Amino acid sequence: xxxxxxxxxxxxxxxxxxxxxxxxxxxxxxxxxxxxxxxxxxxxxxxxxxxxxxxxxxxxxxxxxxxxxxxxxxxxxxxxxxxxxxxxxxxxxxxxxxxxxxxxxxxxxxxxxxxxxxxxxxxxxxxxxxxxxxxxxxxxxxxxxxxxxxxxxxxxxxxxxxxxxxxxxxxxxxxxxxxxxxxxxxxxxxxxxxxxxxxxxxxx
Amino acid sequence: xxxxxxxxxxxxxxxxxxxxxxxxxxxxxxxxxxxxxxxxxxxxxxxxxxxxxxxxxxxxxxxxxxxxxxxxxxxxxxxxxxxxxxxxxxxxxxxxxxxxxxxxxxxxxxxxxxxxxxxxxxxxxxxxxxxxxxxxxxxxxxxxxxxxxxxxxxxxxxxxxxxxxxxxxxxxxxxxxxxxxxxxxxxxxxxxxxxxxxxxxxxx
Lengths: 204, 204
Prior knowledge:
The structure is a homodimer.
Chain A: E1 2-6, H1 13-22, E2 26-30, H2 41-46, E3 54-56, E4 62-64, H3 66-77, H4 84-109, H5 121-142, H6 156-169, H7 178-188, H8 191-200
Parallel strand pairs in A: 1-2
Antiparallel strand pairs in A: 1-3, 3-4
Helix pairs in contact in A: 1-3, 1-6, 1-8, 3-4, 4-5, 4-6, 5-6, 5-7, 6-7
């Protein structure tokens, strides 16, 4: 059985939704980041950087990084394209979200990772906010004229939904992003998404 | 025929090496980032963020993000694991390099992405340097007791080699990283790597 280390409202929400969609039993292992669960010695053996998510595979091996966890779950549950070119496009989208969108937000939420002098944090946060907003607009553009980021519902959609939630949290004008907001609405119509939103108590 | 947009010494070096290894003809399209080639209107249609690499597929479609380009090339040229679990591990490593190691270095080379006040740049660069060095030590640990990052030579190795070169560029004490330095030596013994190092004129 799979197990997922996750924290409410973190980027682990994408994998959490996918596992809920799957119908397969899994063990949710909730972390309290404010209490420092992610820095416990046992957890650092699973994830040396002390982050979520971490997926524990059936044999007990941990798998980290959304760029690996989401394709793995997608293949297992039929939420991932099988054709080579479509798969490459999906990996490109996962990469865009993981290497650009997520780090931009981290500059808002974790400025201490990027500078030592706290008086520099507001500048870093403001710039992160600008970059994050610009990238959310790009996601909006990707969703123009389509229901889902790939040809059909895939693991990309819960991942994009997670960043929509982060946009709300940062009080960005998300309603202006019409395609992305319609995507959010489609996500919220799914029972698995509703269960995760309730469990993680996020504003969506 | 594939075409690769690359810039000397940039993270496109990984894909460049893989294409050289392949023996398949391809079209190298060299970009001059100092001249702003990456911000040309035509290029922004290929890569909206104005970055390298971009791989142009046989049908003319562009593929961006190393998290997609490297697995795509790896599958095409037999430099990628085929078994599901081994593939997940490889994607995790690509993700670690793309979402942690690369952005840490960007704080050294491109502080203007992360703050607007230039007086904050030295702090951001110093912190980026510390984080980058810490992550290179993690790569060193991953290479302990093994020849290559995966069970055999794969697209992960040119990617890790690229960050070794960046460590030299930043004058980090790379020689202290024994496993990573031995990996660099193995890379430099490969004719394809030698050709790319000569073409891109990097210190390795």
